[in-house]
Design a protein that fits this description.
By secondary structure, this protein is α+β, with helices and mostly antiparallel strands. It folds into 3 domains: about 150 residues; about 45 residues; about 80 residues, no CATH class. About 50% of the residues lie in helices and about 10% in strands. The protein is flat, with a radius of gyration of 25 Å.
């Protein structure tokens, strides 16, 4: 794999499904996206779990832990000398990306701050990856990654690699203009060659050629639609959501909590998960047709929402104080 062009999906083949037994003494620390390090309370809860824990993931070239420091600590607490593991053969940057993705998808969740810090590091090491590809790895919204990228103001790139591994130009208009110039110079050139030289897809090259033949501007995509008047949009919406909707991040955080072995494999943890599920409201689940709710019900619903929000804040303060 070439540095800077690997996608999240390409990381999986670099570590097999085979599980091996490694001596704990041979395993080194971790280049972890978790700034707070090992949470001993969480490690102790895993050590007391009777069920078999998933194997950890270890970077074969360095023997550093990619995923599973809490499970490794739990094994040390139990006095075990070996631990089940899977081995990853990628480079250091790919190992970090895999660590972020695995820590986001299961176990003790990464904080939002850790996810943002991980996204910043990935943007710097893999600037060719698209916002959406990095967002999936870091457990953030693509808009958040885009905002972080603009804050970094790094070197410009002409194209980015998406989640599907396809390369797409950052500036679609520039790619279309380049294709139009190539078609004018070489009208009989194959579309695949035009697409390759212009850094666009074959379908986009076909669209450019069709628009040129019709005497139309090649930069204007046929899917472009007139923008609606902002005032009309505001009149239609009764609830204005933040520009950066955190729903994807919150949903990922909820899924991570639900996969946590220390909760899934204990009765008290399962009770908590059953209690939690129906009580979580995500921003993108808020109904926008609130105008249809009768005025007296709107006031009651507003009071209920504020009371629930106050209860969640009280719960958060209690958790953070422990």
């Amino acid at each position: 794999m070439e540095g800077g062009t690997s996608t999240c999906a390409e990381l999986d083949p670099a570590w097999g499904s085979a599980v091996v037994r490694l001596p704990i003494s041979a395993i080194r620390g971790t280049d972890s996206p978790r700034s707070a390090g090992v949470d001993m309370a969480h490690a102790l809860s895993l050590a007391q779990t009777e069920a078999d824990l998933p194997p950890i993931v270890v970077h074969r070239p360095t023997m550093r832990v990619i995923d599973g420091m809490h499970r490794l600590t739990a094994a040390q607490i139990r006095g075990e000398r070996t631990i089940r593991a899977k081995l990853f053969d990628g480079d250091d940057d790919e190992a970090f990306m895999l660590a972020v993705r695995l820590n986001v998808s299961h176990g003790m969740p990464l904080s939002i701050a850790d996810r943002r810090a991980a996204a910043v590091r990935i943007i710097r090491t893999h600037p060719q990856l698209s916002d959406r590809a990095i967002a999936v790895t870091a457990g953030l919204a693509a808009k958040t990654v885009g905002s972080l990228r603009r804050e970094l103001d790094g070197p410009p790139v002409r194209a980015r690699v998406g989640r599907d591994g396809r390369v797409r130009p950052v500036d679609g208009a520039a790619g279309r203009r380049a294709a139009a110039e190539l078609i004018a110079l070489h009208p009989d050139a194959p579309l695949r060659r035009i697409a390759r030289d212009a850094g666009i897809s074959v379908e986009t090259a076909r669209s450019v050629r069709a628009r040129l033949r019709a005497g139309e501007d090649p930069v204007l995509d046929r899917r472009t639609r007139p923008q609606r008047d902002d005032r009309t949009v505001n009149r239609q919406m009764t609830v204005k959501l933040p520009e950066a909707d955190p729903s994807d991040e919150l949903r990922s955080l909820l899924e991570t909590i639900q996969r946590d072995p220390s909760l899934r494999y204990t009765e008290s943890g399962r009770t908590l998960l059953r209690w939690l599920g129906p009580r979580v409201l995500l921003p993108d689940e808020i109904p926008l047709s609130l105008r249809r709710i009768p005025p007296h019900s709107r006031l009651n619903l507003g009071s209920l929402a504020r009371s629930c929000a106050a209860a969640w804040i009280q719960l958060a303060m209690g958790l953070e104080a422990d």
